[in-house]
Design goal:
The structure is a single chain. By secondary structure, this protein is mostly beta strands. It is 0% helix and 30% strand. The chain folds into two domains: 38 residues, N-terminal domain of TfIIb, CATH 2.20.25; 48 residues, N-terminal domain of TfIIb, CATH 2.20.25.10. It has no helices and seven strands.
């Protein structure tokens, strides 16, 4: 990282025509780069790595993830699960399970 000789602000890479320069964020002073291609400029994209799915009470239970958990009612070993904030914000969330066989719902506190 380089700093401006005039005001001490940080110099940021910028395209000026066909040349790459460093420009002060505070005063706008430009400094040319000594070597061509001294930095690589990338443009951020708004692509996300994964998609967040919001589930409400009207949604089908089949869209929830499954895990291996033994149902206390029928002892089946597969259940859907979700997390919900049921206590104060500084407390951990409560994990709920729903048996994929008998639809019994139980909870687990952290």
């Amino acid at each position: 990282m380089e700093f401006c000789d005039k005001c001490g602000g940080s110099l940021m890479p910028k395209k000026a025509g066909s040349k790459n320069v460093l420009e002060c964020r505070r005063c706008g002073k430009r400094k040319s780069l000594k070597s061509r291609g001294a930095f690589k400029m990338t443009v951020p994209t708004n692509k996300t790595a994964s998609e967040v799915i919001v589930v409400d009470k009207k949604s089908s239970i089949e869209i929830l993830p499954k895990t291996i958990a033994q149902c206390p009612k029928c002892e089946h070993n597969e259940a859907f699960w979700w997390m919900q904030q049921t206590r104060a914000a500084d407390e951990p969330a409560t994990r709920f399970y729903k048996c994929s066989k008998c639809s019994h719902v139980w909870r687990e506190y952290e």
